Every structure is written in C-alpha cells, then in structure tokens.
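I am writing to request your help with a piece of structural work I have in hand. Here, with my thanks, is the record as I have it:
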Amino acid sequence: MTTSTNTPDELTMTIELPRLIVWFMLVPLALGLLIGLLTLFSGDFTEGLLLIIILGGLGSVGYYVLTQRTHLHLHRLAGRVTIQRVTALETTEREYPLEHLDCAEVESTRRYDSGPGGGVSRPTSNVQLVFRHTSPATRIPLTRWSVSGGGSGELANTINDWLRQARESAAKNPSQRT
C-alpha cells in the first residue's frame, strides 16, 4: 500500500503486492522455462515443449494475478470515490458517490493448509469498502486477493480516519460537499 495524497480534501492510495513477492514467485518459473528451452535444444523436443507450455502458462497466469494494482481515490470536494483496477491486460474504473461510503472493513477468512505435520488454519484478510445506501449493504473488495498480516487493518484504518476527518470538515463548513 502506498499513499500518495492524504489531505483533508483528498486521499489517493495504490494497493498492490510488494514487488519482492512477485519476483520470488516468478523467478522459479523463469528458471523452469530456461530448463525447458535447454531440454528442447538438447534434442528432447516433446519434453522440452511440454515443459515450456506448462510453465509458460503458469507464469502468465501468475504474472496476471500477482501484478494486479488497485488505485483508490477519495475526493471530498468532488464527492466521489474512484476505484481503478489495473492488470496486465486491462484497466477498469468505477466511481461511487462519497456520501454513500460508510466505512472500510476488514473481511477475515481462514484458509486451511494441510501439511506433513497436520493441518494448519491460517487467517487471511481483505479490505472492503462498505456502501450502506442499499439493503443489504454493498461491499466492494479493494483487491481480488487476500493477505495475511496487519496490512489490511492499517489500510482500513487509514481510509476510516480520512472519512472521519472529511465528515468533521464538512460539518464545520456545510457549504462544501461531502
């Protein structure tokens, strides 16, 4: 998470996986592709081609999933929330009225990993924007992936603190939009 603007009138954030994680996930696939190429050129055409196709497909899907970014822009004076999702293939952008945004919540889930020492339940979380103008409330996840650790809570707290300050500022100066 990177906050580029945090003023009483505007909050702009970029949410993405750290590049180090992306490299740790994709470098082994690149090495596998290199081994596939070496196998292909050493004369074992079928095995090398199969290795290249499988690892190339996994690498492409992994790159697409791991490099997704979300740009969140809350603008008090314009009265809008903009969520822009950027992937390797497309960019989508949606706008919502800021007055309908109630808060940001952390949705926690538990993932069960079975391992050699027995199963372990690991908590993961994802931040969702909650718009309570509908019944039931509309929840929009900021990312398509969940993470473990405290980053989601920090992100939700930053958004909620900004919303609180924007509402207080609007209450002091009712002529400006919220």
About this structure: The longest strand covers residues 101-115.
